[in-house]
Amino acid sequence: MVGKQGRSMPTIYDVARECGVAPSTVSRALSRPGRVSARTSERIHEVAARMGYQPNPLAKYLPTGRTETVVLIVSDIANPVYSPMIRGAEQAAAQAGYTLVLSDIDESPDRERDVMQKLLRTVDGFALATSRLSDAAIRTIARQRPMVTMNRVTQQVPSVVPDNDQGMRAAATHLADLGHGRVTYISGPATSWANVVRWRALRAVGEQLGMKIRRIGPYAPTVAGGWAAAADLLKPAPRTRTGRGSAGPAAGRTATATTAVIAYNDLLAIGAMQGLSDLGLSVPGDISIVGCDNILGADWCTPPLTTLAAPLRELGATGIRNLLAMIKGAQPRSRRPVVLPSQLIVRESTAPPRA
Amino acid sequence: MVGKQGRSMPTIYDVARECGVAPSTVSRALSRPGRVSARTSERIHEVAARMGYQPNPLAKYLPTGRTETVVLIVSDIANPVYSPMIRGAEQAAAQAGYTLVLSDIDESPDRERDVMQKLLRTVDGFALATSRLSDAAIRTIARQRPMVTMNRVTQQVPSVVPDNDQGMRAAATHLADLGHGRVTYISGPATSWANVVRWRALRAVGEQLGMKIRRIGPYAPTVAGGWAAAADLLKPAPRTRTGRGSAGPAAGRTATATTAVIAYNDLLAIGAMQGLSDLGLSVPGDISIVGCDNILGADWCTPPLTTLAAPLRELGATGIRNLLAMIKGAQPRSRRPVVLPSQLIVRESTAPPRA
């Protein structure tokens, strides 16, 4: 049967053959009433309906070159930080009748560039979630197609970001209120804009609060990265020999100069908690830990993680809504990023330092 | 400047106007060398290059109606079970030069039907990950477009599934070896094919092993669903009054008839562990718990979860590879599902029952 498995849906040529007329006659009959005799038109409509002919929806996109499709590029689909962003983006696109194409670049700038080159002419716009490209590479694409970036600010490209300044201020103030004076920042990927901004904000607010702030890393923004950070966390300070030997948990405890940690993201924070526990230290007994993002699972790790919650779903939805407005011709009122509020969620991974 | 923001990339009409020739002449010059005089052709190529004209890639799809795009529909993007499936699917599509469109239906069969109707003519095929539609609805779409289902078997539609029979056998045998004789299955959505199959497989193997198997539910396949299941888990068996009163942890402990639980998925299992802990019971001390899927976070909950790991990434990749083969005209050799092996990962949420 024709049409089975969709591999041979009837075309305008099939309808023309069945009616014994030219394809152009079928086209006129179906698209411009009155230009074909009523009798012929009626017959063509009848045959088209019987054969299950449907106009090729691609045809309508040809005059403008628009596809009503936008692409969202994420740096790592396995990171649960993206699930709410994708849902927000997907729903905003669907509400506007647009289709969202998702692309996962597995933390590779090369793959990100390839995907964008390939899709350049077949999508109406690009949304980059936590892009790993250079500012220059992002601007090059943005000159050719409407684009928004999420979680990142690039000169001349509209963006939507969480309020990292206010967030880092809340996290550092929380730790200072608990009595912590030495905080280590566990750094994420060097190519991450958010990583740079969070570190700068933390250093600035730490100075105001009279805290000692240091940074270690960069690390992969994964649980494995957190384990590596945990081991490094104890390294820089000189080890103190005790009667029980230098390698035991007590040595680790006395050697650490930092009493609190803020990690670039929750996966790093969770990995660091696991790694510290493996080294014989306790969280928050020996070290308090704060994450960023509030991913699914941040409240079921041990202990439940204190973290800076970004409005992830709103980031995705706002980014796509702004992108669609640009596609329809809107000029951004200003080139300043849209900033959405963050919120510190205090759970059990932070406590006063040991006396 | 023309071309800025991509809203007015030059078309064939712009090139024609600039050259003072008909658009059809430009088309011939660019697509069929030799049909236009060498001098005119050279001029057209030069102008097209200077104006930054690129052929509209949509045009090449028109004759066949193919878009080199396939869609993957997931029931809930917030469930981490989909991340590895999406990555596998995305990579298989990219390797073949296809674009993967992702659609999230938020557990709604209505939304799933809408998405499929909307995309019916603009994608080359459908992959359904854990569809929430009826078999009849799935078959209706499958008659119009190539389709594969993942995590679900529907008569006449090719599918890729984990080995639920072997998996449930491994889980039940593990519990029997530990000495458990009473197992409760926490049921997921009633519309989930995997849920029905897992329950049937567990009941069959439990009978062979001489275990008492019961089922509670259905529950939403989320952490919140697991909390609800934990409360229900203790309800059916009559409560035993003790000297310390009926509502305390001791009463709960003595009242439960089940010593082990297998949950439809890891989110339900993790929620149930949290709920049981909240009710004063310990896992695995009072009740052993087994999940399904081995999602990110299954090893950082408390205690780390024993779970049946499905080959999620391979499910996604194999599903898309089979779909692309169908799009290119391959006939499935058989209508039987492709079955990929599952693996029981034993962690700390299972232990022998209290004597």
Summarize the structure.
The structure is a homodimer of 355-residue chains. Chain A has twelve helices and twelve strands.
Number of domains of chain A: 3
- Contiguous low-pLDDT stretches of chain A (5 residues minimum) are 1-7, 238-255
From N to C, what is the helix and strand string of chain A? HHHEHEHEHEEHEHEHHEHEEHEE
CATH topology of the largest domain in chain A: Rossmann fold
Main pleated-sheet profile of chain A: 6 strands, parallel
Give the integer mean of the pLDDT values of chain A: 86
Cα radius of gyration of chain A in angstroms:
28 Å
Instruction: Give the total of beta strands of chain A.
Output: 12
Biggest chain pair contact, residues each?
A-B, 54 and 55 residues
CATH uppermost class of the largest domain in chain A: Alpha Beta
What fraction of residues of chain A sit in β-strands?
Answer: 15-25%
Question: Architecture of the largest domain in chain A, CATH level 2?
Answer: 3-Layer(aba) Sandwich
Distance between the termini of chain A: 81 Å
Give the helix tally of chain A: 12
Organism (chains A, B): Phytoactinopolyspora halotolerans
Keywords (chains A, B): DNA-binding, Transcription, Transcription regulation
Protein name (chains A, B): LacI family transcriptional regulator
Domain HTH lacI-type (chains A, B): 10-64
